[in-house]
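Batch job 17 of 40 flagged for manual review because the log was empty.
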Amino acid sequence: MVKNKIFFQKPNLELLDSIGLQSVDMHFHSCYSDCYTQIPNILKKAKKKNIGVAITDHNAIGGALKACNDNKGVMVIPGIEVSCKEGPHILLYFYNIKELEEFYIKNIKPKKNVNPYWVTKLKVSELLEKTTNYNCIRCAAHPYGYSIIASGLSKSVKRHNVNIKTLDDIDSMEVICGAMNRVLNRRAQKKALMLNKSVTGGTDGHTLFELGNVVTSSYANDVDTFLDNIAKRKNLVI
Protein backbone atom coordinates (compact mmCIF):
# COMPACT_ATOMS: atom_id res chain seq x y z
CA MET A 1 0.00 0.00 0.00
CA VAL A 2 1.25 3.49 -0.83
CA LYS A 3 2.10 5.34 2.36
CA ASN A 4 0.14 8.35 3.60
CA LYS A 5 -2.56 8.25 0.95
CA ILE A 6 -5.11 10.91 1.85
CA PHE A 7 -8.29 11.36 -0.19
CA PHE A 8 -10.61 14.32 0.25
CA GLN A 9 -13.73 12.58 -1.03
CA LYS A 10 -16.70 10.63 0.27
CA PRO A 11 -15.52 7.13 1.25
CA ASN A 12 -16.99 4.31 -0.83
CA LEU A 13 -17.33 1.89 2.06
CA GLU A 14 -18.61 -0.98 -0.07
CA LEU A 15 -15.64 -0.69 -2.43
CA LEU A 16 -13.14 -0.48 0.42
CA ASP A 17 -14.66 -3.56 2.00
CA SER A 18 -14.71 -5.46 -1.30
CA ILE A 19 -10.94 -5.11 -1.70
CA GLY A 20 -10.30 -6.30 1.85
CA LEU A 21 -9.72 -3.02 3.63
CA GLN A 22 -10.94 -2.52 7.19
CA SER A 23 -12.30 0.99 7.61
CA VAL A 24 -12.64 2.68 11.00
CA ASP A 25 -14.09 6.03 12.03
CA MET A 26 -11.25 6.97 14.40
CA HIS A 27 -12.94 9.86 16.21
CA PHE A 28 -16.47 9.39 17.50
CA HIS A 29 -18.34 10.52 20.61
CA SER A 30 -21.12 9.02 22.67
CA CYS A 31 -23.54 9.79 25.49
CA TYR A 32 -20.70 9.12 27.92
CA SER A 33 -19.36 12.61 27.25
CA ASP A 34 -20.97 15.44 25.32
CA CYS A 35 -23.81 14.06 23.19
CA TYR A 36 -26.83 11.77 23.38
CA THR A 37 -25.75 9.00 20.98
CA GLN A 38 -26.08 5.58 22.59
CA ILE A 39 -23.39 2.92 22.28
CA PRO A 40 -25.76 0.14 21.05
CA ASN A 41 -26.95 2.43 18.27
CA ILE A 42 -23.38 3.32 17.28
CA LEU A 43 -22.45 -0.35 17.08
CA LYS A 44 -25.60 -1.20 15.14
CA LYS A 45 -24.88 1.53 12.58
CA ALA A 46 -21.20 0.56 12.33
CA LYS A 47 -22.12 -3.09 11.75
CA LYS A 48 -24.61 -2.09 9.07
CA LYS A 49 -21.91 -0.06 7.31
CA ASN A 50 -19.37 -2.85 7.96
CA ILE A 51 -16.89 -0.44 9.56
CA GLY A 52 -15.12 -0.16 12.89
CA VAL A 53 -15.20 2.73 15.33
CA ALA A 54 -13.02 4.34 17.98
CA ILE A 55 -15.12 5.69 20.83
CA THR A 56 -13.09 8.75 21.84
CA ASP A 57 -15.13 10.56 24.45
CA HIS A 58 -13.83 13.71 26.13
CA ASN A 59 -11.81 12.73 29.23
CA ALA A 60 -14.05 9.67 29.63
CA ILE A 61 -13.91 5.94 28.86
CA GLY A 62 -17.37 4.67 29.83
CA GLY A 63 -18.42 4.48 26.19
CA ALA A 64 -15.22 2.77 25.10
CA LEU A 65 -15.58 0.21 27.90
CA LYS A 66 -19.17 -0.58 26.95
CA ALA A 67 -18.39 -0.81 23.24
CA CYS A 68 -15.33 -3.02 23.71
CA ASN A 69 -17.07 -5.36 26.13
CA ASP A 70 -20.11 -5.82 23.88
CA ASN A 71 -18.81 -5.03 20.41
CA LYS A 72 -21.45 -6.94 18.40
CA GLY A 73 -18.74 -8.13 16.03
CA VAL A 74 -17.58 -4.57 15.27
CA MET A 75 -13.90 -3.64 15.44
CA VAL A 76 -13.71 -1.19 18.34
CA ILE A 77 -10.49 0.75 18.91
CA PRO A 78 -10.10 1.63 22.62
CA GLY A 79 -9.67 5.38 22.71
CA ILE A 80 -10.07 8.66 24.54
CA GLU A 81 -9.85 12.34 23.60
CA VAL A 82 -8.05 14.26 26.33
CA SER A 83 -8.61 18.01 26.52
CA CYS A 84 -5.35 19.48 27.77
CA LYS A 85 -4.87 22.55 29.94
CA GLU A 86 -3.52 24.79 27.18
CA GLY A 87 -6.35 23.88 24.82
CA PRO A 88 -5.16 21.09 22.46
CA HIS A 89 -7.08 17.84 22.25
CA ILE A 90 -5.01 14.66 22.12
CA LEU A 91 -6.46 11.38 20.88
CA LEU A 92 -4.99 8.27 22.50
CA TYR A 93 -5.53 4.86 20.90
CA PHE A 94 -4.76 1.81 23.02
CA TYR A 95 -4.20 -1.77 21.91
CA ASN A 96 -6.47 -3.15 24.61
CA ILE A 97 -9.20 -1.79 26.82
CA LYS A 98 -7.55 -2.85 30.08
CA GLU A 99 -4.54 -0.61 29.47
CA LEU A 100 -6.82 2.28 28.57
CA GLU A 101 -8.79 1.75 31.76
CA GLU A 102 -5.63 1.64 33.88
CA PHE A 103 -4.25 4.76 32.21
CA TYR A 104 -7.50 6.63 32.70
CA ILE A 105 -7.86 5.75 36.39
CA LYS A 106 -4.26 6.68 37.21
CA ASN A 107 -3.76 9.73 35.04
CA ILE A 108 -6.95 11.30 33.70
CA LYS A 109 -9.63 10.81 36.32
CA PRO A 110 -7.69 12.65 39.08
CA LYS A 111 -7.05 15.61 36.76
CA LYS A 112 -10.61 16.42 35.72
CA ASN A 113 -12.11 19.81 36.41
CA VAL A 114 -15.61 20.73 37.61
CA ASN A 115 -16.86 20.26 34.07
CA PRO A 116 -15.42 16.79 33.41
CA TYR A 117 -15.66 17.09 29.62
CA TRP A 118 -13.91 20.45 29.36
CA VAL A 119 -10.16 21.00 29.80
CA THR A 120 -8.28 18.85 32.30
CA LYS A 121 -5.50 20.01 34.62
CA LEU A 122 -2.93 18.22 32.45
CA LYS A 123 -0.60 20.10 30.15
CA VAL A 124 0.12 18.46 26.80
CA SER A 125 3.69 17.66 27.82
CA GLU A 126 2.49 16.09 31.08
CA LEU A 127 -0.07 13.94 29.29
CA LEU A 128 2.43 12.69 26.74
CA GLU A 129 4.99 11.95 29.45
CA LYS A 130 2.43 9.80 31.26
CA THR A 131 1.89 7.69 28.13
CA THR A 132 5.52 6.58 27.88
CA ASN A 133 4.93 3.35 29.80
CA TYR A 134 1.90 2.41 27.72
CA ASN A 135 1.52 0.88 24.29
CA CYS A 136 -0.61 3.45 22.53
CA ILE A 137 -0.70 5.82 19.58
CA ARG A 138 -0.72 9.52 20.46
CA CYS A 139 -2.50 11.61 17.89
CA ALA A 140 -3.09 15.36 17.61
CA ALA A 141 -6.82 15.83 17.07
CA HIS A 142 -7.76 18.54 14.52
CA PRO A 143 -4.25 20.09 14.76
CA TYR A 144 -5.39 23.51 13.58
CA GLY A 145 -8.40 23.57 15.86
CA TYR A 146 -11.41 25.73 15.40
CA SER A 147 -11.42 29.25 13.98
CA ILE A 148 -11.60 30.86 17.43
CA ILE A 149 -10.70 28.24 20.04
CA ALA A 150 -7.05 27.11 20.11
CA SER A 151 -7.93 23.45 20.57
CA GLY A 152 -5.41 22.22 18.01
CA LEU A 153 -1.83 21.34 18.81
CA SER A 154 -0.30 23.02 15.76
CA LYS A 155 -2.29 26.20 16.37
CA SER A 156 -1.24 26.21 20.04
CA VAL A 157 2.41 25.78 19.10
CA LYS A 158 2.12 28.64 16.61
CA ARG A 159 0.64 30.84 19.32
CA HIS A 160 3.43 29.79 21.72
CA ASN A 161 0.95 28.28 24.17
CA VAL A 162 2.72 24.92 23.82
CA ASN A 163 6.44 24.23 23.35
CA ILE A 164 7.30 23.33 19.77
CA LYS A 165 9.28 20.31 21.02
CA THR A 166 5.96 18.74 21.99
CA LEU A 167 5.40 17.95 18.32
CA ASP A 168 8.30 15.47 18.53
CA ASP A 169 6.37 13.38 21.06
CA ILE A 170 3.25 13.03 18.91
CA ASP A 171 3.04 9.84 16.85
CA SER A 172 0.25 10.84 14.51
CA MET A 173 -1.92 13.69 13.25
CA GLU A 174 -5.60 13.73 12.39
CA VAL A 175 -5.43 15.04 8.83
CA ILE A 176 -9.12 14.77 8.02
CA CYS A 177 -11.50 15.69 10.83
CA GLY A 178 -15.17 15.84 9.92
CA ALA A 179 -15.71 18.82 12.22
CA MET A 180 -13.09 20.93 10.42
CA ASN A 181 -13.28 22.65 7.05
CA ARG A 182 -11.15 21.66 4.06
CA VAL A 183 -8.64 24.48 4.56
CA LEU A 184 -7.83 23.42 8.13
CA ASN A 185 -7.62 19.75 7.16
CA ARG A 186 -5.25 20.57 4.29
CA ARG A 187 -3.04 22.43 6.74
CA ALA A 188 -3.04 19.40 9.02
CA GLN A 189 -2.11 17.17 6.08
CA LYS A 190 0.77 19.44 5.10
CA LYS A 191 2.07 19.61 8.68
CA ALA A 192 1.88 15.83 9.17
CA LEU A 193 3.80 15.15 5.98
CA MET A 194 6.38 17.85 6.82
CA LEU A 195 6.96 16.31 10.26
CA ASN A 196 6.89 12.76 8.87
CA LYS A 197 4.02 11.73 11.14
CA SER A 198 1.53 8.95 10.58
CA VAL A 199 -1.99 10.06 9.74
CA THR A 200 -5.54 9.29 10.83
CA GLY A 201 -9.01 10.50 10.02
CA GLY A 202 -12.37 10.48 11.74
CA THR A 203 -15.62 12.38 11.80
CA ASP A 204 -15.42 13.81 15.33
CA GLY A 205 -19.04 12.75 15.11
CA HIS A 206 -21.70 13.21 17.75
CA THR A 207 -24.67 11.87 15.75
CA LEU A 208 -25.30 8.61 13.93
CA PHE A 209 -25.67 10.50 10.66
CA GLU A 210 -21.95 11.37 10.77
CA LEU A 211 -20.62 7.89 11.48
CA GLY A 212 -18.34 6.65 8.70
CA ASN A 213 -18.24 9.89 6.69
CA VAL A 214 -14.48 9.99 7.36
CA VAL A 215 -12.52 6.77 7.79
CA THR A 216 -9.05 5.40 8.26
CA SER A 217 -8.60 2.22 6.20
CA SER A 218 -6.02 -0.54 6.29
CA TYR A 219 -5.54 -4.23 5.61
CA ALA A 220 -6.13 -5.56 9.11
CA ASN A 221 -8.33 -8.11 10.84
CA ASP A 222 -7.69 -7.05 14.42
CA VAL A 223 -7.00 -3.97 16.52
CA ASP A 224 -3.29 -4.73 16.98
CA THR A 225 -2.62 -4.98 13.25
CA PHE A 226 -4.76 -1.94 12.49
CA LEU A 227 -2.88 0.28 14.95
CA ASP A 228 0.47 -1.17 13.90
CA ASN A 229 -0.33 -0.28 10.30
CA ILE A 230 -1.10 3.31 11.28
CA ALA A 231 2.22 3.51 13.09
CA LYS A 232 3.95 2.12 9.98
CA ARG A 233 2.00 4.53 7.74
CA LYS A 234 0.38 1.67 5.87
CA ASN A 235 -3.11 3.13 5.80
CA LEU A 236 -5.46 5.38 3.89
CA VAL A 237 -7.50 8.34 5.14
CA ILE A 238 -10.67 9.09 3.19
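Reviewer: the log was empty due to a logging misconfiguration, but the result itself is present. The first strand starts at residue 5 and ends at 6. Unflagging and moving on to job 18.
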